TrEMBL record:
GO terms for molecular function: carnitine O-palmitoyltransferase activity. This is Carnitine palmitoyltransferase 1. It comes from the Eukaryota. It comes from Sebastiscus marmoratus (False kelpfish). InterPro entries: Carn_acyl_trans (IPR000542), CAT-like_dom_sf (IPR023213), Cho/carn_acyl_trans (IPR039551), Cho/carn_acyl_trans_2 (IPR042231). GO terms for biological process: carnitine metabolic process; fatty acid metabolic process. PROSITE patterns: ACYLTRANSF_C_2. Belongs to the carnitine/choline acetyltransferase family. Keywords: Acyltransferase, Transferase. GO terms for cellular component: mitochondrion. Signal peptide: none annotated. The lineage of its organism: Eukaryota, Metazoa, Chordata, Craniata, Vertebrata. Residues 1-426 form the Choline/carnitine acyltransferase domain. The active site is at 151 (proton acceptor).
Length: 426
C-alpha cells in the first residue's frame, strides 16, 4: 500500500443502494453551495436504476485481505471502463455512503443505540464503505451522520477537528429553511451526478465474495461497546486537583485488573504536534505507581493511603505525558533503532523482545473543542460522541475516550468475541 495525495480533486464519489456515482463539487469556477449539494444528493436518491452485475458488493475488495485486492486490481481494473470508474473513486476527495439504514442516539436506550451506531460506522455491511479512502462520510436514511477514517495518514484529532467544523457550521452558521432544505436555491443548469460503469467478470466476482467473507468474519468478531459515563466528569476531577487524563488512565488500570486479575502492557497515544509533521508517541501508562494504587484499592487499604497513592500515580502519569509530547519518549526512538537494524541487517535480541510484546490495553483520548466554534453549554446537541478503534491484541482491549464538557466522559471499548479473556460490556 502507498499513500497518494490528490491535491487537485474537485469531485467526490457517492455510493447508494449498490450504485457508484461521481459528483462534481465545483461548477462554473466555484465550489457548490449547500443547496446545490443537496440538489445533487436528491438526484441520486431519486435515481431508480439497478446496480450493474457485480457492482453492489464491489467495495468488499477493500475490506478483505490486501493481497487478493492488489492482484485483482492488476487483473481486472487496469483498462477500460473499470479503470475509469476506479480512478473516479480513488481520485475523489473522499467517499460518501448514502446508507439505506437508520441509526440514531436514543436517550431512552443510550447504550444499545450507540453500540449499533458505532458498529455501523465501523464496518457497515462490509461492502458499502470504500475502506481505501482516507475517510468515508456516512449519511443514514434518517439524516444522522458519521465517519469511518483510515488511520495510517492521520490521527484522531485531525478528523475530530474536521468533524467539529461540520457540527458547528451546519446548524450554527449555514442553517435550514422551515421546510428542512439547505438555505439558498437549486441551480437551474447544474449537471447531474455521473453514474459509474463496470464490467465485472465472473473471476472477479469470486474474489469479491471471498473478500466479503473475510471482512464479515472480522466484523462479526468485533465486540464494540459505547459507554456514556455521566456520574461525574472533568469538573469534579479538576476540583480534586488531578489531571482528568491521568485519572481516567488510572481508572482503566483498576478496571482492567478487576477484569483480568493482572496488569498488562498499556499504550496511550500522546500527540507530538509541537513538532512539524509530528504524529504520536507512546505513554506507557501502566506504571509502578499506578500498580501500587490498584493493589491498595483491591486490597482494601485505608482511604488516606489510597488517595496518597492516587496522587503519586497521577503525578507520574502527567510527567510521562509531558515527556512524550516534547520528544522525550522512548517508543519512537526504539522504533527508529529497529528500522536502522533492519537496514543494516543486524539482528537485535533486545529490540525483538521489546517490540514483540503485545499491547493488551491500547488507549487514546480524542480532544474535544480544539477551536471554540460554538458554545458547548448552550448547544450540547452539536457534540460528537467521539470515535473508537479495534483492539491491537487478539486477547486485549481498545479504549478510546472523549471528555465532553464538565460532566460527561464517553468511552468506546472494543475487544474480540473470539477471545475468552475479554468482554467489552464487562
Amino acid at each position: 500500500d502507498t499513500l497518494q495525495h490528490v491535491n487537485e480533486s474537485k469531485h467526490i464519489a457517492v455510493y447508494h443502494k449498490g450504485r457508484f456515482f461521481k459528483v462534481w463539487m465545483f461548477y462554473d469556477g466555484r465550489l457548490l453551495l449547500p443547496r446545490e449539494i443537496e440538489q445533487q444528493m436528491a438526484r441520486i436518491l431519486a435515481d431508480k436504476s439497478e446496480p450493474l452485475p457485480g457492482e453492489e458488493k464491489l467495495a468488499a475488495l477493500t475490506a478483505g485481505d490486501r493481497t487478493p485486492w492488489a492482484q485483482a486490481r492488476e487483473t481486472f481494473f487496469v483498462r477500460g471502463k473499470n479503470k475509469h470508474s476506479l480512478d473516479a473513486i480513488e481520485k475523489a476527495a473522499f467517499f460518501v455512503t448514502l446508507d439505506d439504514t437508520e441509526q440514531r442516539y436514543d436517550a431512552g436506550n443510550p447504550v444499545k443505540s450507540l453500540d449499533s451506531y458505532a458498529k455501523s460506522l465501523l464496518h457497515g455491511k462490509c461492502y458499502d464503505r470504500w475502506f481505501d479512502k482516507s475517510f468515508n462520510l456516512i449519511v443514514f436514511k434518517n439524516g444522522t451522520m458519521g465517519l469511518n477514517a483510515e488511520h495510517s495518514w492521520a490521527d484522531a484529532p485531525i478528523i475530530g477537528h474536521l468533524w467539529e467544523h461540520v457540527l458547528s457550521m451546519d446548524p450554527v452558521r449555514l442553517g435550514y429553511t422551515d421546510e428542512g432544505h439547505c438555505c439558498g436555491e437549486p441551480h437551474p443548469n447544474l449537471p447531474g451526478p455521473q453514474r459509474l460503469s463496470w464490467d465485472i467478470p465472473a473471476e472477479c466476482l469470486e474474489v469479491v465474495e471471498s473478500s466479503l467473507t473475510v471482512a464479515r468474519n472480522l466484523a462479526d468478531d468485533v465486540d464494540s461497546h459505547i459507554f456514556p459515563f455521566n456520574d461525574f466528569g472533568k469538573g469534579l476531577i479538576k476540583k480534586c486537583r488531578t489531571s482528568p487524563d491521568a485519572f481516567i488512565q488510572i481508572a482503566l488500570q483498576l478496571a482492567h485488573y478487576r477484569d483480568k486479575k493482572k496488569f498488562c502492557l498499556t499504550y496511550e497515544a500522546s500527540m507530538t504536534r509541537l513538532f512539524r509533521e509530528g504524529r504520536t508517541e507512546t505513554v506507557r501508562s501502566c506504571t509502578m505507581e499506578t500498580c501500587a494504587f490498584v493493589r491498595a484499592m483491591i486490597g482494601g487499604e485505608t482511604r488516606e493511603d489510597c488517595l496518597k497513592l492516587l496522587k503519586l500515580a497521577a503525578e507520574k502519569h502527567q510527567n510521562l505525558y509531558r515527556l512524550a509530547m516534547t520528544g522525550e519518549g522512548i517508543d519512537r526512538h526504539l522504533f527508529c533503532l529497529y528500522v536502522v537494524s533492519k537496514y543494516l541487517g543486524e539482528d537485535s535480541p533486545f529490540l525483538k523482545e521489546v517490540l514483540s510484546e503485545p499491547w493488551r490495553l491500547s488507549t487514546s483520548q480524542t480532544p474535544l473543542q480544539q477551536l471554540e466554534l460554538f458554545d458547548l453549554v448552550r448547544h450540547p446537541e452539536y457534540v460528537s460522541s467521539g470515535g473508537g478503534f479495534g483492539p491491537v491484541a487478539d486477547d486485549g482491549y481498545g479504549v478510546s475516550y472523549i471528555i465532553v464538557g464538565e460532566n460527561l466522559i464517553n468511552f468506546h471499548i472494543s475487544s474480540k468475541h473470539s477471545s475468552p479473556e475479554t468482554d467489552s460490556h464487562r
